[in-house]
Amino acid sequence: MKKNNQMIGLLSMIGALSLVLGACGGGGSKAGAKTTEDGKTIIKVVRPTQNMASADSKQVKAVQDAINDYIKDKIDVQLDYEEMPAGEYSNKVNLSLANGEIDLFWTANWMGAISTDDLVQNNGAYDITEILKGSQLEERLPADVWEASSYNGKNYFVPVYKEIAEGYSLMFRKELVDQFGWDLSTVKELKDIEPMLADSKAAGIKAPLLTQATPFAYKFFLDDYAWITGNDYIGVDREKNEVVEVIKTDEYVEYIKMMSDWGEKGYIQEGDITNTNPTDSLNTDFWGISWWTDVPNNASASSRYQQEVEMVHMTKNYVDSNTTLGSTYAIASNTTEEAAKASVDFLGLLYSDETLANLFTYGIEGEDYDMVDGFIVKKGEKYDHSAWESTNVEFVALEEGEPANKVELYQEFNKNAEKSITAGFRFDASNSSAVISAVNNVVAKYGFVLQSGGYPQADVDKVLEEYYSALDEAGYQELVKDVTDQYNAWKTKQ
Length: 494
Known about the structure:
There is one protein chain. This protein is an alpha/beta fold. The N and C termini lie far apart (60 Å). The longest helix is centred in the N-terminal third of the chain and has 22 residues, at 2-23. The chain has helices at 2-23, 57-71, 86-98, 116-121, 129-132, 136-140, 143-148, 174-180, 194-202, 217-220, 250-264, 270-274, 300-304, 337-350, 354-362, 406-416, 433-451, 460-473, 476-492; strands spanning 41-49, 77-85, 104-107, 157-159, 168-173, 207-209, 225-227, 234-237, 242-245, 287-293, 309-313, 318-319, 328-331, 369-372, 375-378, 418-419. Mean pLDDT is 92; it is low at 1-29. Helix 17 (433-451) packs antiparallel against helix 18. It has a domain at 17-163 and 323-418: Periplasmic binding protein-like II (D-Maltodextrin-Binding Protein, domain 2), CATH 3.40.190.10. 40% of the residues lie in helices and 15% in strands. The chain has a 5-stranded mixed β-sheet with strand order 2-1-3-13-4. This is DUF3502 domain-containing protein. It comes from Enterococcus alcedinis.
């Protein structure tokens, strides 16, 4: 009897475990999709309150009802819509996925337990590759976006269509440009700003070069290397299409020595090394030159930093594996095929219809926003979202303060972006996680300080030797081999 009870207990545990695993698997564990009396498929949709501390459930219900009323004659879909506080969102969605409680949800490549990488690795996202074919949704995004956001040739995510590429500029305070008559057309490489740094230092600027406590190699080596591990110590040489140890290249060593020289000359603030500079540094006269992530409307930097700035674009803009996944939708892997198709139908309409896009993004006109001279003026009290986490930028009304040509700016930006040679490749770190952790600890100790000009020039060669030795002791060469093998295997399939 005791053995039977033990067996029953074991079987119960296995059954419970199977439910959880099934909920995270790829195969429709639900008995069937929920439908309305008139045959519409009901989909549970969740997303975080990005602009509010918490959701106003009554207003969310009102928006849900308005959406359902609007789409009832357009698609056979009805929304069951819920919003969750951003701080709790990742954990709540993770639990809801395990319990099979949601169909369609928002996520991103930086969303922790429900990040795009984690969802694919844990079989938490539905493979929509076949469902997409010939759909309205497929037509709404460029082929390069679908390819770059794919995993092993399969589509699991629907990127929110906004800027789809990554590139970097140097940013100059216009007051100093005018004061010293800087000719920004002469700036072609990072080293070209040295005379301007000298001017800034002589003028008493505390941080002639404000790195924002961020390594520059990742940004300004972008035309030479594609980063495939999320770090700049290993990259793919864009010219040779080969994995290389970037930190051992002549260009990298030369760059480190230049930063050390600038550090000794006082061009780089110690606060950038210790990450103790004032958080509002860019809004003041604390700095002379810094960096900026290129966006379709670079002019927005001046209003953001409350002073006029000028830009020099230093790299191309690249569409790569993660540049399209900073804001995206996913369908739960354990949803039914009917609900998955309904989710694709809903997103297809959301990405194509301005009325629906406005409802989902801004709420109900007169209650959540007013339309003034063709622009959205938010009230922001009960319902408040932004285009970047909601819908296709081409089919949503502009907010007050946005440029009237915003859509054209985005279209031009995306049109001119270059598809990276690594677009679609994703490094599987599951076999190297311990090594990566050890390597990152070494990089944190040596790499960041080296890139920030924290060592005297006379010590750089010695410190680099110590750095390389510590990396190898941490298993760095194993990581290089793993990355190289995976990338070469992926290349052969392209």
